Amino acid sequence: MKEQFNNLDELLRSGLEGFEQQPSPGVWKRIATMLFFTGKGFYLMLAALLIISTGAVYYFGFTDKSISNPVNKELLSTPETGLNDEPSISQIQNFTESANPALASETSINSSYQSIDQNDDVKNTKQKGKAKQQEITNPGNVVDDLSQEKILFASMAKIDNYPGIKRLYVESNDISFNLNYQSDIIFPYLLYTPEKLELRSDFGNLKIRFEDDYAKRINLLFGLHTTPEFIFNTNDSKPSEPVWNFDLTAYYFKNDWFIQAGAGLGVAKDNGTFDINYAQYDSVGYYDAVKSFSIDESTGAPVFNIQQEALWDTVEYHQNETTTNQFTYLRFPLYVGLRIHEIKRFSVYLKAGGIYSILLNSKKEQLKYANDRATWITITNETPNRISTNFQVSAGIALHYQLSNTFALSAEPMYNYYFNPVYRKDQESSAWSLGLRAGIIFKIKSK
Amino acid sequence: MTVDLKIVEGCIAGKRRSQSQLYKQLAPGMLGVCMRYCHNKAEAEDILQEAFIKVFRNIKSLQKPAAIVGWVRSIMVNTALTHYKKNKMYLEEITDDNIPDTSTSDEDEMGPVDPQILMNLIQSLPEGYKMVLNLYVFEGYTHKEIAEILEISENTSKSQLSKARKYIRKELDAMNLFDKKHVTDERTV
């Protein structure tokens, strides 16, 4: 057989030996990326990230700078109030500290900067950073039977849309110390973001200004999310089976901005398609076979004894079968977000960023096809291969509902645009997807 | 084709610049090899990508830097075969009786054919035909070796090769690229 086809073989060899084709520019980029992610550089970077994250958690999460922070006292120690016969806030502070040193040395609170102006004479003391100010005019309630200290202690500041739960807790805690007699007023606010915090006094128009270090807040939070994501190909309006993503991210907040980064896994499923060609010896029709004949004696004409016979031949068949494949991706999301609205425990953010995905594992179901009658079978896997790396840009709205100082619920409808097609398939354009990230955001509690 | 030994040494040292240079130099030819084993360029680029990653990860094991082209080529072919084995279900020819007699006369004259046409023809072959044809015609394996590589019988290898040739022949005939002096046996049957 070999000798019979020398000419064709030589034709093929001479025509295709040395055949060259320029690869697409993206091929080298993907190779370089894969080499990076599987090389030493990647692991060094991961190690560096781990060290930085650990350091950040330690620095922002576990160190409590307010333990020995003198600012509270300083801020609460106001200048002369004009009401010389009335005790100054600093006096009260001193009184209360001496009255209850245990509370005064409370170490579980963070720093807050708070100043109280009384009758507009009290000047603000030091402010740090771009302090957000809340100004409240005392409603002037009079509580006759309370001592001066008690009157002050009974005061209640009213703060609208206070943005910082932790800060409020701290301030409330400070005040609560001074307001032991009215603790039922203050303490309900300690557990959640208050819409209003009030200070009442019978000093007439007691003007109270609260300043927090809201602008200086730097928080490190963590989020655990799952996302059902529906991918649409632009040439196919039908969404594929949802991709399930799970990720753990760290949020680094500074003022109203945050950066979110982390890692996760994505599990996608799709159908494998197989083209099956086979040939089998099959009936292709019938014909009338003359088994015998006789002569009709009366007419002399032949009488045929006919029997229908099946006609058999090798026939080629063609059919398609599908299987289910599962793909696992390693994902690295990176977002930047901005808080655009906050009321009570509810916050709204705009966020945008990108996700880099690497195909970790492909679990392809094998097609089980058997046909004993077939003389030959050819099965071609026509499933388009998935691209091993993918980059998508992503934007959406994040809605956070604060459950406590430590936990918040998160729901984030997101739109994603894939920069390259999911599949390696000619003429397939980039895909887009809609997903709903849902999960919890938590803070590692400080000691 | 030769590759500057400095580039190879750079690749062994893990230098990205050298890797890029080696890729630029070899990729077009290696893509040509990969394309013979695939349906289309996109699929071939996947194999090229996978194979080059293997090349850079294992280049330290290359004992003769001067033989890098052949070494890279063998990785390309092996990767293509692995890719094929992953996807293939089975290719079975039951008996030799099923092999049609597609013999043509050696005296057929074949003029030069555009390589792109030949490539398209090979790419359009069914997977099994394509593998056997590539291994037999371009890589120089015997049917026995092909049978071991593809885990098929020798008869199957022969029949796949026969059908591949028949297919290519038929398509080339349809394009009137052969100056026929003789009618093939097939047509006389």
Question: Could you say what the CATH topology of the largest domain in chain B is called?
Answer: Arc Repressor Mutant, subunit A
Number of folding domains of chain B? Answer: 2
Distance between the termini of chain A: 83 Å
Q: What portion of the residues of chain A fall into strands of 2 or more residues?
A: 35-45%
Oligomer: heterodimer
Query: Termini of chain B, distance in Å?
Result: 47 Å
**Share of helix among residues of chain A?**
10-25%
Structural class of chain A: alpha+beta
> What is the rounded Rg of chain B?
19 Å
- Strands of the widest sheet of chain A, in order across it, are 3-4-5-6-7-10-11-13
Q: State the major sheet of chain B.
A: 2 strands, antiparallel
Order of helices and strands of chain B: HHHHEEHHHHEH
Mean pLDDT of chain B: 80
> What are the segments of chain B in which pLDDT stays under 50 over at least 5 consecutive residues?
90-107, 180-189
**Helical stretch count of chain A?**
9
- Class by SSE composition of chain B: mainly alpha
Helix content of chain B: 55-70%
- What gyration radius of chain A follows from the Cα positions, in whole Å? 39 Å
CATH architecture of the largest domain in chain A: Beta Barrel
Describe the structure.
The complex is a heterodimer of chains A (about 450) and B (about 190). By secondary structure, chain A is α+β, with helices and mostly antiparallel strands. Chain A folds into 3 domains: about 25-65; about 65-215, no CATH class; about 220-275 and about 325-440, Porin. Helix content of chain A is about 20%, strand content about 45%. Chain A has helices spanning about 5-15, 25-40, 40-60, 70-75, 90-100, 100-105, 150-155, 165-180, 185, and strands at about 130-135, 205-210, 220-235, 245-255, 255-295, 300-345, 345-365, 375-380, 385, 390-400, 405-420, 425, 430-440. Chain A has an 8-stranded antiparallel beta barrel with strand order 3-4-5-6-7-10-11-13. Chain A has a two-stranded antiparallel ribbon with strand order 1-2. A two-stranded antiparallel ribbon of chain A has the order 9-12. In chain A, strand 5 (about 255-295) and strand 6 (about 300-345) form a beta hairpin. In chain A, helix 7 runs antiparallel to helix 8 (about 165-180). The longest helix of chain A is centred in the N-terminal third of the chain and has 23 residues, at about 40-60. Chain A is elongated, with a radius of gyration of 39 Å. The N and C termini of chain A lie far apart (about 85 Å). Chain B is mainly α and about 190 residues long. Chain B has 2 domains: about 5-85, Rna Polymerase Sigma Factor, Chain: A (Orthogonal Bundle), CATH 1.10.1740.10; about 95-190, Arc Repressor Mutant, subunit A (Orthogonal Bundle), CATH 1.10.10. In chain B, about 65% of the residues lie in helices and about 5% in strands. Chain B has a two-stranded antiparallel ribbon. The longest helix of chain B has 21 residues, at about 15-35. Chain B starts with a helix and ends with a helix. At the A-B interface, helix 1, helix 2, strand 5 and strand 8 of A face helix 2, helix 3, strand 1, helix 5 and helix 6 of B.
